């Protein structure tokens, strides 16, 4: 979509700026004219808009792909609006069918609670916790009861539910759809009614659920929310969306050195999308930097800036500086200043067993695969013999570019 801010003369500078911030990096903002009216009203009355992001705590950890929508929330939070971090403890019991070709297994209440605590702690690395309203949708979903659920279900038709892409595909291919899965978008939409949301954020895969919120708010006599979808972040491989199952992700709890090095591993092309979606630099700053690179500046300089910004956000400026130095040392073949130290017994010990016991490889067979690939070094020398046995002594063992251990073998 056209992301340029509206320059209609009757809009104030503040509203134009807020619209520009709203549109940065978005996939869709629907309907944009309604959002402008909300911004104008908010400025006139001094009443902040209510901006909702709902997340089901289906896993305990989040990666930086998840922070794309959190970054947008923070940008809107910094404009003075009220952001609501909604934890879907009730909807997690149903399981979100979005983008699924099979029924998502529901979680237990204990799993949900444990994941929710970790989720919010990690999200607070992006959002300002002092200005964030935290809600759980069980607060209004559980009191609905059976009669309330039936009344809610009466506000949407099966025909319209089946227009949803993933339901349609599963139905036409003969895959099962459980009745309870129809409840998920209804319950997510009801969250917007309960919270009187002005804007709901989500990934592109959530569009149906977000629009459900608009529909139900109208059914309940409320002004409908606007919907803002963000693109899914492409992962380290530059091909697929960031995902743990694709092994192309950066976890926000990963150590600073790993995080820094992973950001530097992305392509020069992908870097600019990451700047738009992950950086807090203004679009003008990013455009100026891009022009410098186009004019001959080394793109690695820009990538280092991005790596330091992201590492600082989830660790600290000092940790980002140390990670940069660590990366330089490794690129020169040097050994990091701080590496794990451990003592093992059983000399002479086979290299495969040593790698496993030192937690440098998950198994002896994986250790052998790493040796075959040339990824193992002892005291700086590549190991090619899987049958190597190390006598008693102290060794610096390296696997790949980022795993080291100082092993004292007795």
From TrEMBL:
GO terms for molecular function: ligase activity. It catalyses: tRNA(Tyr) + L-tyrosine + ATP = L-tyrosyl-tRNA(Tyr) + AMP + diphosphate + H(+). A motif ('KMSKS' region) lies at residues 241-245. It is found in: Cytoplasm. It holds the Pfam family S4. Keywords: Aminoacyl-tRNA synthetase, ATP-binding, Cytoplasm, Ligase, Nucleotide-binding, Protein biosynthesis, RNA-binding. A motif ('HIGH' region) lies at residues 57-66. Its EC number is 6.1.1.1. Residues 349-410 form the RNA-binding S4 domain. It comes from the Bacteria. ATP binds at residue 244. InterPro entries: aa-tRNA-synth_I_CS, aa-tRNA-synth_Ic, Rossmann-like_a/b/a_fold, S4_RNA-bd, S4_RNA-bd_sf, Tyr-tRNA-ligase, Tyr-tRNA-ligase_bac-type, Tyr-tRNA-ligase_bac_2. CDD domains: S4, TyrRS_core. Belongs to the class-I aminoacyl-tRNA synthetase family. TyrS type 2 subfamily. Catalyzes the attachment of tyrosine to tRNA(Tyr) in a two-step reaction: tyrosine is first activated by ATP to form Tyr-AMP and then transferred to the acceptor end of tRNA(Tyr). Homodimer. This is Tyrosine--tRNA ligase.
């Amino acid at each position: 979509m056209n992301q340029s801010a509206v320059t209609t003369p009757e809009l104030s500078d503040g509203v134009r700026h807020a619209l520009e911030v709203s549109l940065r990096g978005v996939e869709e903002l629907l309907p944009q004219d309604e959002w402008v009216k909300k911004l104008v009203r908010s400025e006139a009355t001094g009443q902040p808009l209510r901006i909702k992001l709902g997340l089901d705590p289906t896993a305990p950890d989040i990666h930086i792909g998840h922070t794309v929508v959190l970054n947008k929330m923070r940008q809107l939070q910094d404009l003075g609006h009220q952001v609501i971090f909604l934890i879907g403890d009730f909807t997690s019991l149903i399981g979100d069918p979005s983008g699924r070709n099979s029924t998502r297994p529901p979680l237990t209440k204990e799993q949900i609670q444990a994941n929710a605590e970790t989720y919010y702690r990690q999200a607070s690395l992006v959002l300002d916790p002092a200005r964030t309203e935290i809600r759980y949708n069980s607060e209004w979903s559980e009191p609905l009861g059976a009669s309330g659920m039936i009344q809610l279900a009466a506000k949407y038709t099966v025909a319209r539910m089946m227009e949803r892409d993933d339901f349609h595909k599963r139905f036409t291919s003969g895959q099962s759809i459980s009745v309870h899965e129809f409840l998920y978008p209804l319950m997510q939409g009801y969250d917007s009614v309960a919270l009187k949301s002005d804007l709901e954020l989500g990934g592109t895969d959530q569009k149906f659920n977000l629009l459900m919120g608009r529909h139900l708010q109208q059914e309940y006599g409320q002004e409908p929310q606007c919907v803002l979808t963000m693109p899914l972040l492409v992962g380290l491989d530059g091909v697929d969306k960031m995902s743990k199952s694709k092994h192309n992700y950066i976890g926000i709890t990963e150590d600073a050195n790993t995080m820094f090095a992973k950001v530097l591993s992305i392509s020069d092309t992908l870097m600019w999308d990451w700047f738009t979606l992950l950086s807090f630099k203004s679009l003008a700053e990013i455009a100026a930097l891009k022009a410098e690179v186009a004019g001959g500046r080394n793109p690695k300089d820009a990538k280092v800036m991005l790596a330091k910004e992201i590492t600082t956000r989830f660790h600290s400026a000092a940790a980002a500086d140390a990670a940069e130095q660590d990366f330089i040392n490794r690129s020169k073949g040097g050994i990091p200043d701080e590496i794990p130290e451990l003592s093992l017994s059983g000399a002479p010990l086979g290299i495969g067993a040593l790698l496993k016991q030192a937690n440098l490889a998950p198994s002896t067979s994986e250790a052998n695969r790493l040796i075959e690939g040339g990824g193992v070094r002892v005291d700086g020398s590549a190991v090619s013999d899987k049958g190597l046995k190390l006598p008693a002594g102290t060794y610096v063992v390296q696997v790949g570019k980022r795993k080291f251990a100082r092993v004292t073998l007795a």
